[in-house]
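Journal club prep — side note

Before the paper discussion, L.F. wants everyone to see what a predicted structure for a comparable chain looks like in token form. Sequence:
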Amino acid sequence: MDAWKEKLLAARKTALVQGGIRKLHYEFGKDEEMAEDYDMKTGELLVRKWKRSSAIGSKSDWIYEIGCPPLGMNKNSDLLWESNATPKVYRQDTKTHYTWRIQPLPWPMSNYKVSVEDNTIIVRTENKKYYKKLRV
């Protein structure tokens, strides 16, 4: 944990407040950066995302560790993109809970079943249209 604190202290930091959200941006040298968004009222972490450079120096897209990316078209293809109706899983942690959000849920809540097996949460539907394992 001390190495992480030292890394954060050594990083170049930028902060701003926009629409009730505190946005923090950390640069860890030339090859890695992290951005976090916090709710100003609750202090809750809404988004944590990373961007890393490849071995040849090209920057990757943002990789979301916590929270969800904004919905929209795929940057890599202007012809095909994933449907907004497809359920997606996002981690949304608070100070006291680990939380996963699945959005959108196209079927009635009575159709979903949640079970736990060996440190894994399993979400499935009775109509066998959705199945997801969440490792804890």
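L.F.'s comment for the group: The two ends are 20 Å apart (CA to CA). Keep this in mind when we get to the figures.
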